[in-house]
Amino acid sequence: MTSPPTDPQGIGARVLRKEDARFLHGRGAYVSDLVLPGQREVAFLRSPIAHGRILGARKPADRFVFVRDDMAEALPILGMSGLPTYRPVAQHPLAHEKVRFVGEAVAMACAPTRAEAEDLLERIEVDYEELPPVVDALRAKRDPSVRPHEEWDDNLFLSLGLESGFEENARKASVVVERELTLSRQAMVPLEGKAVLATWDQRADGLVVYASSQAPHLLRIGIAKFLGLDQRRVRVVAPDVGGAFGYKYNLHPEELCVAWLAMKFRAPFRYVEDRREHLIAGANTRQHHYKITGYADARGKLLAIDAEVTVDGGAYSNWHQTIGLEPGQIVGNLPGPYDFHGYRVRADCVATNKPGFLPYRGVARTGVCFAMETTIDALARAVGREPWEVRRENLVPAAAMPYENVAKKLFDSGDYPKSLDMAREAIRFDDWRARQRTAEPDGRLIGIGFATYCEQSAHGMSVFKAWGMEFIPGYEQAMVRVTPEGAIEVRAGVHSHGQGMETTLAQVAHTVLGVDLADIRVVLGDTAETPFSTGTYASRSIVMASGAVADACRTLVPRLVTIGAHLMQAATGTVRLEQGRVVGPQASLSLREIAEAWYCRPDRLPPDVDVGGLEATVAHRPQVDTGAFSYATHAAVVAVDPGLGSIEILDYAIVEDCGTLVNPMIVDGQTLGGAAQGIGTALYEESPYDPNGQPLAATFADYVVPGPVEIPDIRIAHMETPSPYTAFGIKGMGEGGAIAPPAALCNAVNDALRPLGVEITETPMSPQRVLAAILRAGAPAGRDAGAGS
């Protein structure tokens, strides 16, 4: 359990977020708030069909209407990968020769207002030769007669696999369970969609791009690469970002189009995605299909896992992570936090006529957790034991840490069984089991479910290299400066899109330097003002940037002490930095007095003063860069109405461990937000398509996002097992909350429906799917269905 912090402002303190002062008073600055002189708004004409050839286009005689042939300077976006079997495929900024999903941008128009730009789009006529669409990934894998990319001989982006000790361990099994599981496609739905404003800076002779981005430095690389510019001629500024979840980590065609317009016409242009565009043409994610087999002994001790996984990758592979990220994560993370030694997996990523798959909070791990955790429950039912008991006996024990699992993941620290025990106690498991033995007056059925996962955070060079990525993240940099007033300025290349980085990085700086948080300013999101960084993703930012900020602060300490000792005429060895002051045997100096000597009175400085001054830029990398593993157990109690198919969450508890907590309040917020998204995956969110590839959820009338009424009162408990490999023992946790809810809730629903012989194997668990499963099982679908169960 966590202990109270000794420093009310440093690492471990529940400090209110510094950035909320502007957010809560409506003073945030987003791309939509920015207006430049002469600015034009951009609108995109999008394909009405899922698959077809472009035979021709007729556009009005307006200089601000464009198709692909007008953009010779812009190269197609091409994501490369070193993964075996990977096929690169170019995505043009505007569709070229073919369209491959409904909503693909075919043309763009610019006007003083968005409405006028959309009016121009209505005057564009495009002739299509409609082709049969590829909608079902499993069918597309079996039958490649129709292909989104005709130059391929099948529909596979890539196929990855791993086998370790499978045959030897599987043959020892006395219990075998097989399941076929599906996670439906969904959208990401950040509060702010993608947004970009680009202009040409005449003085700098280069592009300035304001973008809602998680990774401004990488966006600069992509824009420069595909517009044929030197990176020094591109500046990317990411102002406040209204949520991202992975959606804003890659280069989007619309961003390249707007940057091209600014480069071409030396004027400002802006595009802001609307909600319909996001639901139709924005990132799709999560769509996995599993054939998974678990092998165990008579008690349910897991011996081996065999899985065939199919990912519906959509039409294009993104830059720079590529479509290979999802199957790569599946292969490496499917075993979860479990101790077994036989493993065989194959993950196929299939091209279909849907928007390209992009990484979403939890990247693949929500799917693998769903598959693994429902398999654990199935094994428990097969051997006649409580799922929590079988789960506990299979989890990697604390005494085994650090532990290398069957997929060669190195778990650094933690007590996985303890998190399960605490979650079981938190929901009063025995009380709910007793209640289950008495029929509910309203005929509903009570169910209890658990899910335990581990989250590989702060991946380093070795991991990304193994994933075959074109661009491999390495060291994280930060710059720390003492200002002339004695305040602290921290500049970091990571960016915040809701994580509270302005607060937590200030807490790290305070922990080292002791300066009051009110006097620490954190600057993020501008490639001209911050050190290079690969950005905020993969639950890495606080792990990597905290180490860089702390190391930069520590670099300044001897410089401050040397100047202070000289000013106080004291021996350097007798002087220390304490609570933001340089303290000597008989006197102390504020940082303001030290800064005054450096900036204004160099005649008072010691002759051997460090000419690096009062600022330092330092790069940091954890000593073991294969990742710091956070983990958690989620426990859910549900009531299922067998007559209506409705599911109510009666109780939900989370016990999580992300190492040293920098700010427990922010950790709670991140966990709650992630859990809300996971509940959406489990019960509500779905992007379905008809056989013609037409999206069927284009508005919030059809695409259901959980709100306050749908989210229960989630209770969170923290364990705190520091990582031995990272600065301060911190582990990342930004994605974790979204990983476990589908598995925990599915296990709870199946526990409730067990008396009816019903098992749900697909998300979201909508009332229609629950009722259909009841009918397939031949169980009565009425309010008396659970009587006597």
Question: Care to describe what's here?
Answer:
Helices cover 27% and strands 23% of the residues. It has 789 residues and is an alpha+beta fold. A seven-stranded mixed sheet has the order 3-5-1-12-9-10-11. Strand 14 (302-314), helix 8 and strand 15 form a beta-alpha-beta unit. Helix 9 (365-383) packs across helix 10 (387-394) and helix 14 runs parallel beside helix 15. The longest helix has 28 residues, at 541-568. The model is unreliable at 783-789 (pLDDT under 50).
Task: Please indicate the percent range of residues in DSSP E strands (runs of 2 or more).
Answer: 15-25%
Number of DSSP-assigned strands: 29
Question: How large is the radius of gyration?
Answer: 28 Å
* Largest sheet report: 7 strands, mixed
The best one-word shape is globular
Spatial arrangement of strands, main beta sheet: 3-5-1-12-9-10-11
The helix content is: 25-40%
Write the layout of secondary structure elements.
Layout: H1 20-23, E1 40-46, E2 52-58, E3 65-67, E4 98-99, E5 105-111, H2 114-121, E6 125-130, H3 137-142, E7 156-164, H4 166-170, E8 175-183, E9 195-201, E10 206-211, H5 216-227, E11 234-237, H6 253-265, E12 269-272, H7 275-281, E13 288-296, E14 302-314, H8 325-333, E15 342-351, H9 365-383, H10 387-394, E16 403-404, E17 410-411, H11 416-426, H12 429-436, E18 445-457, H13 461-466, E19 476-482, E20 488-492, H14 501-513, E21 520-523, H15 541-568, E22 576-578, E23 581-583, E24 588-590, H16 591-599, E25 615-620, E26 628-640, E27 647-657, H17 664-684, E28 715-719, H18 741-753, E29 762-763, H19 767-776
Parallel strand pairs: 1-12, 8-29, 10-11, 14-15, 20-21, 27-28
Antiparallel strand pairs: 1-5, 2-4, 2-6, 3-5, 7-15, 8-13, 9-10, 9-12, 13-14, 16-17, 18-26, 19-20, 19-25, 22-23, 23-24, 26-27
